[in-house]
Amino acid sequence: MLHSASSRLPLPRLPPRRLRLAPAFSMASSLAILRPSAPAPLAGRARATAPAAARVRSRFSSARVSLSSEVAAGADALFADYKPTTAFLFPGQGAQTVGMGAEAQSVPAAAKLFNQANDILGYDLLDLCTNGPKENLDSTVISQPAIYVTSLAAVEVLRARDGGQDVINSVDVTCGLSLGEYTALAFAGAFSFEDGLKLVKLRGEAMQDASDAANSAMVSVIGLDSEKVQQLCDAANEEVDENERVQIANFLCPGNYAVSGGVKGIEAVEAKAKSFKARMTVRLAVAGAFHTSFMQPAVSRLESALAATEIRTPRIPVISNVDAQPHSDPDTIKQILAQQVTSPVQWETTVKTLMGKGLEKSYELGPGKVIAGILKRINKGATIENISA
């Protein structure tokens, strides 16, 4: 059910300066370019090669965080020997599209999530999801809550189908791309839907404010391996000031790595990409240099919010974007989530690890088919089904 115009709640402040970034180029669109053809209750890195890592000379090198020693320590070791068979995978920012959420309205439990979200967010999320405008939906402060809610609504859409509850019961590992890690944690019962949405709302606002404080951007580099992209970043960094330098921010899949940094550094990457034999570069429709130290101003706000949030041990492993490992200790999870906004996303390593451990079937829950595209790039034989809402 769509809300009438008269019932719409006021929208949050949207910074017009950041909407100038070409909204047509999202993470989803860059994957489409790369890939010619695509085939429980809510309660209930690829890392750079050693030589490439050694060459990182930018101020961003400190953002590479390793928590592997904590995995084997005490309460955080619960999932150390997990054996995945069926995974729920949740998308991140860039997967949003006008019209999402409409299907969920035919499932009462899914529709209820949007109603709950309105009370927490203070605006009509469903109206924005289904009607746009796209410029508003693409903004960081709206797209993050929108994807979180729509993805969890997709769980309820699946539950309402014949055999859907059996699928949900079979899931023994979950993870999400950047923002999607919060969705995965909510699905795994680490925190409530409401608490997760409050965290995501604050995360989007904090990341937008951090972006507004610096002239930064992101670009996807298409057609190179991670070592070549690192070399490209090194070459670009030689030509710009330290505060404009770039780094790999998203290790997505072979041939698609996202680079973040100052605008001049990003422009240098774009100018040099062809000489490094990149197929193309695609500037991303995000507010700024996510997953780098440009996001440092957001960390303290996230830490405060996380400290005030009840986080429980997840009922199934949730794989972290920071180190591609599952964590069971609530305090460690809080630490991970605070570090996540300044740390490169280790998605390629996550997927390869899951498949290497025997993962048989995956479901992508939420808008778009970005994650399906990534999985097929990593392993053409991967079995994945999209559940939209």
Automatic annotation (TrEMBL):
SUPFAM superfamilies: FabD/lysophospholipase-like (SSF52151), Probable ACP-binding domain of malonyl-CoA ACP transacylase (SSF55048). GO terms for molecular function: [acyl-carrier-protein] S-malonyltransferase activity. Pfam families: Acyl_transf_1. It comes from the Eukaryota. Residues 89-388 form the Malonyl-CoA:ACP transacylase (MAT) domain. InterPro entries: Ac_transferase_dom_sf, Acyl_transferase_dom, Acyl_Trfase/lysoPLipase, Malonyl_CoA-ACP_transAc_FabD, Malonyl_transacylase_ACP-bd, Mitochondrial_malonyltrans. NCBIfam families: fabD. This is Malonyl-CoA:ACP transacylase (MAT) domain-containing protein.
